[in-house]
Design brief:
Elements: H1 2-5, H2 11-18, E1 47-52, E2 60-61, E3 64-65, E4 72-77, E5 87-89, E6 116-122, E7 129-132, E8 144-147, H3 157-167, E9 186-187, E10 193-194, H4 209-225
Parallel strand pairs: 1-4, 3-8
Antiparallel strand pairs: 1-2, 4-6, 5-7, 6-9, 6-10, 7-8
Bound molecules: 2-acetamido-2-deoxy-beta-D-glucopyranose (NAG) (5 copies).
One 2-acetamido-2-deoxy-beta-D-glucopyranose binds next to loops.
Length: 227
């Protein structure tokens, strides 16, 4: 409800000013900014590690990569003051958990959580795997990712990101039923587990919390004004 009330004219300004279009293709920055990042360790053979809410931004890092069959991809979800998820979606519906009408096909989902790590294993590297964060508004702010996305044609990562940003504040509110095992082209077999050494002082999300809360407060105020 609330997110429909925020004037549409404000959204492009908010989105471009605070979040922008971010493909995370830049190399990992060095120096003091690294301290704000959650703790995805370097990749090793057969193991790719992804930071969730990287440096307090509404992004996965990396958010567009290839992974051969058998690769384990582990997502590091920080304790950022609010929960995040790694939820499989589809190119057609970037911000919606991938589920067929009869539940015969269900995408993986970490469920909303924090200070955890969540692993999926690639089972078919010839098809793309699309995912997003189901936390309210995060997907529409560009918190999406793709594994083995086509590099040409209509269904590129760039098009997927653009589709998520186009949804913006109209992102559907998703139910959260916790961990969902299985998946399409990649599977999760176990719930997220506590990240070794994660501390409550992890400040991966600190920088943007005021903005996040600000949007909600602004939305609430406008809702009250319009009553
Ligand atoms: C992926 O994780 C599973 C379960 O921990 C493990 O058995 C397997 O060896 C891992 N694969 C790679 C390539 O590391
Ligand atoms: C995260 O966002 C801040 C501004 O909020 C920006 O300065 C920084 O470059 C961003 N980091 C990444 C990795 O996009
Ligand atoms: C599919 O799963 C959801 C969530 O577990 C459940 O609410 C729904 O009833 C299921 N639908 C069918 C057709 O089984
Ligand atoms: C790609 O998109 C264009 C424009 O929407 C459409 O004309 C074309 O048929 C699409 N190509 C495929 C392979 O779907
Ligand atoms: C996504 O990654 C592919 C390679 O896997 C690359 O060709 C493409 O340019 C990337 N897209 C963006 C928007 O970074």
């Amino acid at each position: 409800m609330l997110r429909n009330i925020l004037p549409l004219c404000l959204l492009p300004i908010l989105v471009s000013a605070q979040y922008g279009y971010n493909t995370d293709s830049s190399p990992t920055p060095t120096g003091s900014s690294v301290k704000a990042a959650p703790s995805a360790p370097p990749d090793t053979t057969g193991q790719i590690n992804v930071d969730v809410f990287f440096q307090g931004n509404y992004t996965f890092h990396p958010n567009n990569f290839t992974a051969p069959k058998g690769t384990n991809v582990t997502f590091y979800i920080p304790n950022s003051g609010f929960d995040h998820s790694v939820t499989q979606s589809s190119f057609a519906s970037p911000c919606t958990h991938l589920t067929s009408a009869d539940n015969s096909t269900v995408g993986f989902d970490s469920g909303l959580t924090s200070a955890k790590q969540f692993t999926i294993t690639i089972t078919d590297d010839t098809k793309p795997i699309w995912f997003h964060c189901k936390q309210v508004q995060h997907c529409g702010l560009g918190m999406v990712g793709a594994i083995n996305a086509p590099t040409t044609g209509n269904n590129t990562f760039e098009a997927f990101m653009a589709a998520a940003l186009a949804i913006g504040m109209n992102e559907p509110m998703e139910p959260d039923n916790g961990f969902v095992s299985g998946g399409v082209n990649a599977v999760a077999t176990a719930p997220a587990v506590a990240t070794a050494g994660a501390s409550s002082s992890s400040n991966g999300g600190f920088t943007n919390i005021p903005t996040h809360v600000g949007i909600l407060v602004l939305s609430a105020l406008m809702a009250i004004m319009m009553m």
